[in-house]
Batch of 2 targets.
Target 1
Amino acid sequence: MLVLSRKSEQSLMLGSDITVTVLAIDGDRVKLGIQAPRTIPVLRQELFQQIQAANAAASASAGELRRIAAALHGRTTDPATTD
Amino acid sequence: MLPSAASTAESDGTTIELSSHSLVFPDGLVGCQAWKNFVLLTDDKEDLPVAYLQSLDEPHIRLLVTNPLLVENSYAAKLTEDDRASIELEPTDQSVLYCTLTVDAQGNITANLLGPLVVNPRTRRGRQLVLTESSYSTRHPVAQLQEA
């Protein structure tokens, strides 16, 4: 792992189009500003790991389609769409 | 590739006839970037509210999915411009949302409402969203699996 020291308001570059800036340091909390192209997803690592774990867990339920459907029985709605 | 019709064996020994619709998630799923090519397996006869999203890249990966409105009747997900571009969603297209379901060893069914899947049926492209501005969880309680 590359280790760099930065002071408040100093930045580092990841490649030529991602900038990470230390905005403030308060005790054990560091406030970061991230400038990246919109196509680069920026997520807290905990969130990324939660979704990754949920994806892995959802693949372990084969063979129970009818029983799971029965547990959802009686619920009807229109297909979900987005705003 | 799987044939356009398939069937799945249930744990009680019965089978369900499924029809398959191929889907591509160009960026893969979150934390699972290699999972790009899928077929959505839906049953033809029983109109079950759940379906499988079968990975073609990892044959042992078969995600259980449902309509998130069945889980949470006020469920909403907003797409960014980048999300729309990724699935080539035109203003005339109607996207479809899915959420994955997990069944734990105790039979508790939970839904991942934080990271839903959005699909454009016209282009057959999909993307996993992360609703960072929401208070949804990856383990939203849904129901208890009934005894067989």
Target 2
Amino acid sequence: MAPELLRRGILDHRRALAGWCAGIVGYVALIASIFPSIEGSPELNQLIESYPDVLKSLFGITGAGNLTSGAGFLDAELSSFMLPLLVLVLAIGSGARTFAGEEDAGRLELVLAYPVTRRSAVVMKGLAVLVEVVLACLAAVSAILLFDAIVGLDLSLGHVAGAFVWLVALGVFYGWLALAVGAAYPSRALALGIAAGTAAVDYLIGGLHDLAGWLDPFRFISPFWLVGQSPLQQGIDLLGVVVVLAASVVVLAVGATLVERRDLEVP
Amino acid sequence: MSETPAIEAVGLSKTYGNEVRALVDLNLRVERGEVFGFLGPNGAGKSTTIRLLLGLIRPTAGRAALFGRDTQNDGVASRRDVGYLPGDLRLADRLTGREQLDSLTRLRGGNVALRDELCERLRVQLDRPIRQLSRGNRQKLGLVQAFMHRPGLVVLDEPTSGLDPLLQAEVRSLVRQTAADGHSVFISSHSLDEVQHVADRVGIIRQGRLIDVDSVESLRERSLRHVTATFAEPVAVEQFTTIGGVRLVRADGRVLTFSCSESALDALVKQVAQHQLVDFVSQPADLEEIFLELYRQDDDGA
């Protein structure tokens, strides 16, 4: 039965996932352990103030003096770039590997000759990607909460919970995009390329739309803009998160539809 | 009500791009309980046919059904009672054989009555990672998963290529046993020898076209021998070429090479025996030769 593909999807990636979670926790630990030395240095804020607007905008530095608060520091150091990057690399890699990668390796021929529809195979593999993303985000948020307790980041619990949903939404969207591209067209490289390229463009739009006026109208297509860009300071844009999750479902549904219409690539 | 056949293909065609006609207008019926051998050289369209039957690729024209269930519109139902061994089997390399079979069992939805018996019989290595297994041992896993749920139809794509003779014999006996249970087997091969001992009927495909379907007996009647006779001294060739069903392929001094139907073999041997003989070799002709013979007959008929 198709749920075996969900189970297998998670188990096949469990080593990579464990390594990835360890890396995320390690990075959070590194950043959080720097915070006490930043906290007491107002001159840093002056330094940052002198940065070009482009840099500040890209790295989520939204107002004066906020680097010395725990939430502002983590938003700038984690949520603005590295944390989404880590989760997206995991999600996109997993989404591209689980269908297109397996197909490239010739391993889908036997599986899809069993009494399962391709559609359900895509959905089950999508759920496996979701589980991986949720576990990685849980690792990130757990580490943040742990170091909040240790070094006193003074975070709002509601905002941390929001950041979890925020990170899951971003990961699922691009992970499912990679999966859907691989389902629609049999190439792991294309699945990786389109998902990663889209993420890069969306990230730049999210970061730069304020500064480059012509980009501004496009901000609505950027999940990074939609979900909110300072989750720990200002909370998330819940409606935006819902929109991104809904778009993820649509993307996966399109992939699950297109996969039924094409020929399977076989060795 | 007559039983629906295990396999039915009507006008089944597959064209890649606009050029490569991998399969052209295949009409085929394989009855329940029948073992059907599907013969053809590499690239003739055997695997294309099988993948169409399993819904892995989409036909350009025509349709196919397994047990009366359309392979396109009713794919899951059509594959429910089917076991398949791909020609190029790729398994999950990091799993052990047992984990792989467990996974496929769950994917199948349980009910794999024959699994343990087959593993024992084929002496499958269950506890080593698949990547450490030889090709033969991987193939055993493929055979187990194809037969383990007693399917009404087993589709085997070149099942014994690269296997040792012992395992080849085991596959033949599995196929016979499946047929004895009233189930069907569709077995593709590029060697007549591989299928002639198990198949009831044989279809021959070449360049995407099914050129002949026949019972194994009549195919064997028409099947060719490749005969090489070495005489002690030169002999006149005319005395052999006048025998019906014998064709002189090459005359090289004292060595004559014939292509000869099995029914004409006796006459040829008796004629050869008129002379002093140094060596005599009779081999089954390869499939290409049989094809050529079939084509010659087609041309004669036209």
